[in-house]
Design goal:
Blueprint lengths: L1 H9 L3 H17 L2 E2 H4 L10 H13 L3 E8 L2 E8 L6 E5 L2 E4 L4 H5 L24 H19 L1
Helix pairs in contact: 2-4
The structure holds iron/sulfur cluster (SF4).
Length: 152
């Protein structure tokens, strides 16, 4: 799997690689990115929106990107996530490492991915994770679910 993915990456042309790297970076920092946001990024401004859409489709076909239709305040939008090739590794000692698998469906249940304020949200903004009732409610439910699982 890793070998074929690496082969797919090495076969990308320059534009495909630029789009893939943007999606990969967004996946690592924010869990992914809405496809509609790609055309707004400076590094992809030289590409036409249709060209970006075709590239994304090719990346999906090559198995490098996962594209999911999500509801964002009544609008259906594609949310993109690069398939992370390296499992996150925590170096404990030079001879021991720990692989942490990531369940993408649990990432997608985070309310921020369906929130219209996602790109305006921040500590200094009127919308903030520190004061967000949606996020607080989600975390409380998650904690309750995890506590119930541990007891059973
Ligand atoms: S923290 Fe709240 S307001 Fe901010 S993006 Fe997430 S759901 Fe939206």
């Amino acid at each position: 799997m890793i070998l074929s993915a690496q082969h797919a990456i090495s076969s990308l042309d320059e534009n495909e690689r630029r789009v893939y790297e943007v999606i990969l970076r967004a996946t690592k920092t924010d869990g992914g990115i809405f496809q509609v946001k790609l055309k707004e990024l400076n590094e992809l401004k030289s590409l036409e929106p249709q060209q970006i859409a075709k590239i994304v489709s090719r990346l999906v076909k090559k198995g490098l990107v996962k594209r999911k239709l999500v509801n964002n305040n009544g609008k259906s939008m594609y949310f993109l996530q690069a398939l992370i090739l390296e499992q996150p590794k925590v170096e404990v000692s030079p001879s021991l490492s720990i692989n942490i698998p990531i369940e993408m469906s649990s990432v997608m249940s985070i309310p921020c991915f369906r929130c219209k304020e996602l790109y305006n949200c921040g500590e200094a903004s009127s919308h903030s994770p520190l004061r967000c009732p949606l996020l607080t409610s989600f975390l409380i439910n998650l904690t309750k679910t995890n506590s119930t699982r541990k007891r059973s």
